[in-house]
Amino acid sequence: MELEKKESVTPAIRLSRNHQFLILCLFPCYFFIVGFFASPPDEIIEGIITILREPDFLITDYIQLGGIGAAFINASLLTLTSIAILYCLKIELTGAAVTSIFLMMGFSLFGKNIINIWSILLGVILYACFHRQHPSKYIYVGFYGTSLSPIITEIIYIQHFPAPLALIFSIFVGIVMGFCLPPLATHLFYAHRGFSLYNVGFASGLIATIVVSVFKAFGLDVESREIWSSGNNTLFIIIMFGFFAILLIIGIIAERSRSVFKKYIDILKHPGLAGTDYFAEEGLGASLINMAVNGAFATLFVITAGAQLNGPTLGGIFTIVGFSATGKHLRNIAPIMFGVWLSTLPASRHITDPSVILAALFSTTLAPIAGKYGIIFGIAAGFLHACLALNIGVINNGMNLYNNGFAGGLIATFLVPVINSFEDRRARAKEDVF
Predict the structure, then answer these.
(1) What integer pLDDT is reported at residue 98 of this predicted model?
(2) What's the pLDDT tens digit per position in 53-109?
(3) Of 202, 214, 209, nearest to 397 (Cα)?
(4) Dihedral of the CA atoms 281, 282, 283, 285 (nearest 10)?
(5) Closest of 32, 15, 54, 58 to residue 396, by C-alpha
(6) Any idea what DSSP says for residue 302?
(7) How far apart are CA 141 and CA 371, in angstroms?
(8) Residue 113: which region, alpha, beta or left (left: phi > 0; alpha: psi -120 to 50)?
């Protein structure tokens, strides 16, 4: 009894800021090493050049385009660069920081690269300077806003346009888009009140729709594409579950007591609204365990469905892992994903279709609805999300990598007031009874 009591009050390891960022660097370094083992150096260099030269609007799988090694190296370099930016801005390691880093890593497997993100980030920084704010206030918006990076690549390689002029124009457009993102994201947050976790994806969807519409007015149109790799499930299962094991082990070591599992149970009780920070509320250990559990669940969902593990689906899994620090947990993502699967039953589409399996993974932007209002409304949200996400992409021609964030924002804006009306009616009925 005494030993158990001692263990329960053993404090978690207090890590310095340097040590926290060092641990964060371990995650992309893991995939950097994997990349070098997966492909020889000459193939990696050739693959990265291909990635940089090709258009990267949805759906462009960098694993198919440049190879496994090049895709993982690109993702690792971009993630390490993002971590360095956060460190140089003297930002503390929070749930939001971890989420932004994992998003950069995930989408660097199918859309973002070491060339096409900088003008958008510059636009966000200029916005901060214009309002005399420190760039750290908006850097997460900048990271998320790089979902518009396919527009930059498309402009750079536009046909019948002088290369220097195309480069200058792409930088200008990127800066303008980045400058518009912070005020637009702030405004749209009030529309869904935090029930869509991909708020910047909502804002990016509107910007992409406007930009693409202007392009079409000048006769510039983008043909749809679907570059989708297959046949690597066994390899990626080993890689991903090895990564989740690392997260789990670090999480347990960081807490040094069985209370870490109690804190994980406490995470499951959170509704998960935007602005939640499990790192601050429940600690590093429980948050990492939540990330590992959710990542394993999402990976098993893809495998069980019979779909492929590749750049886009791994990106979806990384997104779930990242937002497991700021809102998602097993109890609020499972109903949403089940709702997406349910939407395939009366339709001609199948859960293994690329757009459908991606909708299942990214639909978890609506996790707060299931966390707040319960399983039934969560399933309904997932069902509606799939119906919208699979049709709304034509508006921006795949130029917004967070297409599901755009759809999720619209669904949350529509659904939450309707749910609240039922909740208010139920509450009034109870008042009448008593």
Answers:
(1) 95
(2) 888 888 899 999 999 999 999 999 999 999 999 999 999 989 999 999 999 999 999
(3) 209
(4) -160
(5) 58
(6) H
(7) 24
(8) beta
How many angstroms separate the CA atoms of 158 and 150, rounded? 12
Residue 234, judged by CB atoms within 10 A of its CB (0-12, 13-18, 19+), counts as: exposed
* Structure-block tokens of residue 354: 């690329």
Could you give phi then psi for residue 227, rounded to 5 degrees?
A: -100, 115
Listed residue (210, 202, 198, 204) closest to 106, CA to CA: 198
The predicted pLDDT at position 382 comes to: 97
Q: Which of 405, 417, 261, 202 is nearest to 323 (CA)?
A: 405
Q: Write the pLDDT tens digit of every residue in 293-334.
A: 999 999 999 999 999 999 999 999 999 999 999 999 999 999
| 60: nearest Cα among 76, 46, 44, 71 | 71
Confidence of residue 255 (pLDDT cuts 50, 70, 90): confident
Q: Which residues contact 257 (CB under 8 A, 6 or more apart)?
A: 7, 8, 9, 10, 12
CB 112 within 8 A of CB 78: yes
The answer to whether the CB of 7 falls within 8 A of the CB of 257 is yes
